[in-house]
Every structure is written in C-alpha cells, then in structure tokens.
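okkk here we go again. third time trying to get the potassium ion bound version out, last two times i messed up the smiles copy paste (missing a bracket lol). double checked this time i swear
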Amino acid sequence: MYRWLKLDYLRPAQLIVLFYVGATLISVCLLSLPFALKEGVHWSFVDVLFTAVSAISVTGLSVISTVDTFSTAGIFILMFILQFGGIGIMTLGTFFWLMIGKKIGLRERQLISTDQNQTHMSGLVRLMKQILTLIITIELIGALVLGTYFLKYFDTWQEAYLQGLFASVSATTNAGFDITGQSLIPFAQDYFVQTINIILLTLGAIGFPVLIEVKEFLKKRQTSIPFRFSLYTKLTSVTFFSLMFGGALLIFLLELPHFFADKAWHESLFYSLFQSSTTRNGGLATMDVSEFTIPTLLVICLLMFIGASPSSVGGGIRTTTFAVIVLLIIAFARGQKSIKVFKREIDEEDVRKSVVVTFLAMFICFVAFIILTATEPFSFMQIAFEISSAFGTTGLSMGITSDLSTVGKIVIIALMFIGRIGILSFIFLFHIKEKDTHYRYPKERIIVG
Amino acid sequence: MYRWLKLDYLRPAQLIVLFYVGATLISVCLLSLPFALKEGVHWSFVDVLFTAVSAISVTGLSVISTVDTFSTAGIFILMFILQFGGIGIMTLGTFFWLMIGKKIGLRERQLISTDQNQTHMSGLVRLMKQILTLIITIELIGALVLGTYFLKYFDTWQEAYLQGLFASVSATTNAGFDITGQSLIPFAQDYFVQTINIILLTLGAIGFPVLIEVKEFLKKRQTSIPFRFSLYTKLTSVTFFSLMFGGALLIFLLELPHFFADKAWHESLFYSLFQSSTTRNGGLATMDVSEFTIPTLLVICLLMFIGASPSSVGGGIRTTTFAVIVLLIIAFARGQKSIKVFKREIDEEDVRKSVVVTFLAMFICFVAFIILTATEPFSFMQIAFEISSAFGTTGLSMGITSDLSTVGKIVIIALMFIGRIGILSFIFLFHIKEKDTHYRYPKERIIVG
Ligand SMILES: [K+]
Ligand SMILES: [K+]
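finally!!
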C-alpha cells in the first residue's frame, strides 16, 4: 500500500482546484498539437483555452466548430479530455462524499481504504478504477448500440461507429460536444437515438453514489439482507427526476400555443422531454433553442442554473442544494424548525451550505451578467442563457458563443471553471482558517423581512 | 382603557393584510369621488386600483399623470392616503418589533401597554399617535422650508406652499408621487432642494425604531445614564448608509465615462447621491433614469430590491435581511457557526427568516418577470426595472408604467402589495398551523453544492 500522499495534508478544495488547473494546462497543450487540427486551421490562444476549459469541465459551449477544426486524431484527443474531465470530477466528488460519510454503510466505506481514520491516495486510486470501469462499460454499450444503429445513416461503418462512440462518450460524460456539426438536430425525428441519449445523459448526471447504491440494492435483492438507500440518494434522485419531468411539462405547456402549435403530440412530447433532460446537464439539443419563446427560455435558464447531482459529471448549484432550499421554505411556512424528509432530518450544516452556495452562485452570475451586458452587443436573453449554461456547465447556447468578445470569453471561461469545481470548493479556496470561535456573545433579536 | 380587541387573537400577519386590504378599498372609493378629479377626466377601474395600491403602499408608480388627473381636492385626498399608508405600516411594523422584543429597554416597552403579557389595541393606538406626531412634525418643517424656498420658483404663495407641502409629504412618506409632472427633474441643478429631500427620504426610510432610539440617546446624553443602541438599530443604520453611499459610488464610477462624461464633478456627485438615495425608497428622481447605461440600471434594480429598513415606510426585502445574508456568507467562509456582529449574535430564527424571505422574494419576482416578458412588448431591462421598483415599493420607472397591459398592471399591483405587506406576512397568511414537531428523526448528512 502506497501512502506517499496523505490527503489530510491537502484540503479537498485545494485538491479539486489543483486537479482542474493541471488538467486545463495539459488540455491546452494537447489541443495545440499540430496533428490534432485539420489542415489550415489556426486559432487564437483564448479560443484554445476556451475549448480546453469547456472540454475539461464537460460544458460543451464552443467558440469553434468541432467537426471543422479537429482531425480524427484531434477528435480522439477531445474524447480523452472529456473522459478525463467527467471521470475526474465524479471520482473526487464521490471520494469526499465517502470521506464525510461516517454514517454510511461499511461496504461503501471499503471502497476507500482507511486506517486510523486516515484516508490515503490508494483509496482514491481504487475508487477511480471503479468509476472508470463503470463509465467505460456504459460508454461502450452506448457506442455499440448507437454505432450499429447509425449504419443506416452513414456511408461507411468506420464513420458510423466513430459517430456512435463520440455520441456515447459525449452523452455519458454530459459533455455536450458533437461531431455532427449541429448537435442532435439531425435526429429530431429519431426517437430511438433520443431515448438512448436520455438514458446515457441520466446515467452520467445522476451521480456515482446513486449508481453504487442501485448496484448494491440489486445485489442484495437476491439475498434476504435488507437494504436502505441513503438520504442523499433518495433526495437527489427524486429532485433529479422531478426537475426532468416537471421541466418537460412546463416546456410543453408554455410552447403549446407557439413552437408546438403545428407539431404532432409525440413530436412535442419528445422535444419537451429531450430539451428538459439536456438541462440536467447534457447540453445536446434536438432543435435550435432560440426558437422557443422567452418564458420557456427563462425556465430553461433556471433549470440549467440548478444543474445536476453532486458527484456527477454536471455543474450548477446541484439538485440537492436546490432541494434543501425548497424544503427549507416549506418547513418555515409550516413553522417547523428542522427540515424533515424521508424520515430523516437534514443537518443544519448542510442547510447553511446550501443557502450560501445558492446566494454566492446568484451573485457570481449577476456580476457576470453586468459585465457581459456592458461588453457584448447581445440581448439580455442571450446573455442570461449563456451565463446559466456556462455556470451549470450545460453547454446549450442561443448561438452567441463564437461571437463573444475576448472579455466575454474570459468571463464564460471563469464561469465554466467555477461551475465545475463547485461554489463550495471556490469558497474554501479563500477560506481563512480562524481559531474557531469558542467565545460567545449574547443573542439579540432583530427585525427582518 | 379599551381592550375590545385582543391582538393575541388576531395574528400579526393577518392584521397587516386586513389593514392594507381595507385601506386599499377605502382609497379606491376616495379616488373615485367626482370632485377629486379634474373636469373631463375619466379612468378605468384598473387604473383607479393601480393608483390606490401605489398610493397606499407608498410606491409611487403611476399609470396616470397626477397633476393632470387630480383637482386640488384630489391632491389633498392623495396626500391623506400617502400619509395613512406610510404611517400605517410604520406603526404596525414597529408594534410587532416591540411585541417580540422581550429584551429591549423598558422605556421602549412602555410605548405599548402590556399587562400579563397581553398586548392590547390601546398600545397600538398610543404608538400610532407617537409616530403620527413625529412624522407630521417632520413633514411640516419640511413643507415650511421647501414652501418658503419655492416662493422663488412659483408665481403665487399658495402654489409654492402647496408644492412644498406635497413634496415634503411625498418625500417623508417615501411615496414618490409628484405634482410637478416630472418628479424632481426641474430641481436637477438645485442642490438645496435635493439635500432637503434626501434628509426627508432618510428620516422616513430609516425606520421608526431607529428614530425612537436616537431621540432616547439625545435625551440621555444630557444625563449621565449610559445608553446602548439596540443591535437592530446598529445593523439597519450601517446597512442603510452603506447601501446609500456604496450605491452612489458605484453609480458614479459606472457612469463616469457615459452620463457623467460632460458633467461637472458636483453635478455628477449629486446625480449619483440622489439616485442612490432614492432607491432606499423614495422613488423620486432628478433625471430620466433611462439615460443611465445597462450596468448602472442593474445595480439600481438590486438596490431597489433590497429596499428600506423594516418598520419604515419602505418595501423590498429590507436592509436587515440583506445584511444578515451578507454576514451569513462571511461567517460561513470564515468557518464560524454563528453570526457575530457588534458584539452580539444573531438569532438562528432571524437567519432562517432572512434566507426564506430573500428566496421567496426572488422567486416571486422571477415569476412576475416570466409573466411580463410574455404579456408586455418592452425590453428585459425595462421589465426588470419595473418589477424591482414595484416589489421594493420604490416607484422609479423607465417610463413603461402607463403603457402596461391590464395583465401587466395587475402583476405590478400584486408586487406592490406584497412588497408593502412584506414577504413574512405573505408567508404567514398561508401558514398552516401544525402541531409543532416534538418527534425527531435521526440526522443524516447529504452532499450539496
Ligand atoms: K454539458
Ligand atoms: K416609494
């Protein structure tokens, strides 16, 4: 067992930031390799940086056309970066979940090696192997299914399977990149491709801890050992699917008199469902989202801002954070002091975290909005959409990404980065460790609201 | 002593809502009186309702031109409604502050009569008399000063003193109505009028409890009895003036290359200071705010959304609510569990209230925004500005108020009403009283952010 690096000496937040800064630098180098580009393609440093951050944060916003810029080798490099970014954050996120989860099952704890309450790098490596195996398995199955199905669309089998592989990787890691040149719009009528994509997107965005628990559950069902899902898994899953189906319903109702006016019910259904699912963090689209009306676009902004589950490949404030805020308001209106859900109480510390994360996220997006309204010539709607998409690492766009000014691109790069590492890591990066306050002051009531 | 109504049997929130619904109905009747209007003026019911709610909530948004619609009698009726609205909310707000404030000074408690912990209507009446005396005194001094000064602007002394009285009442109650026909724009170069207005606006918006305490302080300074300002007074005053001067600085810096480019430094200074002060709840303006650039307008939106002190004539989420949120984020980043400020700790309950109020306020404004983008032909900036102004009961506008559709007017009416009664009253209105939860569940940690 190699314990060359005790994690206790490196704070989690710093580890995550370190990982992403390192990974971004490597990605910039890889994407600058001459053989990664098609002949005659030249791009500016800020565009390379933008693509690197977008890829490593699996956002999918793009200032360039992937298919026109990259050679086949470049496409494989890009897939590698997406893979690395997606699996990296899943591993780190899950790892810290297991580290704090003193109360979770022994079997899950065994995923990371611990002795005398010290967590070691070896646990991290073992966990990464587990996640890697699971994700690659999902991706390969996806690639096989999609590639085989694509034989009817493409001339050669090489092209079909390359498209299938890229589509599967992009969907599973929720990267949102495409090599069709126009996202999933060519498959707007192909419900099979869309269904497979929704499944892959969901497996990537629901969070690794949920996948582990479901696996455990399926194993135990064959025996008579009772299995209890963790509060985290229940809460994040319910929120995830509520947002997906609630979002689809809202999009459907809002667009019924507009975009869906001349569409069949099954078309409208799939357009709604796919566009709602994709905000939960895929970033692929089966239509040009600008065709939606403003109210729908605002709802989509909110959905992207909320984002995916923690410890998943997605960004945003995360599903559980949103759920805690909603539960807090309900509990308050009912006059309850603690938040009770699924016969458990939510820890005060997690409530505080959720509140702070949400406010800071809104503040950061508001400042970004002020800057972009000053530097960019686009409409408020386009800018708000781009910001939510970047912060949520979603990757949907109303088409302004490549026309952003350099300042605009840098702001979006920063948002993708913060959205990716998460607001908490961002706070703890500037965490001033003070002697915790053992002194107390008397409490005094004030008037608020 | 008349104790025909024990307040304990009527919940505070219900009392406030009852008061405002009743006052709105009376205002609608008063404003419909034929002699209140100039000859030949006809207006729709929704416009009467809009004006009544705007007046009783001392917002100042207007779908009609006050000076072209009302006769002199009508102007006095309007002043009476502003007076009633402004003093009403100040009384009720202060009253509930005194009711919860078990720890505040005996002398302040004596303001409301209590026996055996029962609070009676008589205390409310006595408090209202105190507030009425104070406000009327301030208004009369203001009217005298402004009226005398206005002699140089107007032809007759009657006109000068009517203008002075209306300006003083409108400023002190932070009503934002004007009978100049163009707010304070005629006085854009008159720093004396502006200074008097800023003072009156501040006295109205800083909150009655602060005024009481300052009065107590001045009294005790002559003796040797030590006086301690309450946490509430310290917190709200510091926040109030920080927002005022911080806002002015931000406006100044943002507009330096734009609106202030060709202005003298003292002009820019007064434009900044006045427009910042007015967001703290006056709603008067010395310029057409649409001339500001987008980033400045967004900052003004935020300032209006925050609003004035609780127990004042102003609306919004209130200064203390905003202060608690900011302190919460700072405490969290420092790793402190409790919020310490001015050598006191903020009660957990007040923190919860602040958080819930802010989230609900944002949610309500977001829904209003979605509705208005669907029903109105105006820009996002104009709509966002109108919504912040209505919710903050500020009354500034980019000029779209009178062109709103009927649906739009109703949404703005609702926002002014909610902004006025406050989010907390709004929640408690729907408060489902449950048996408080003596049962507990085990706590379980989750992942957020
Ligand atoms: K994405
Ligand atoms: K006002």
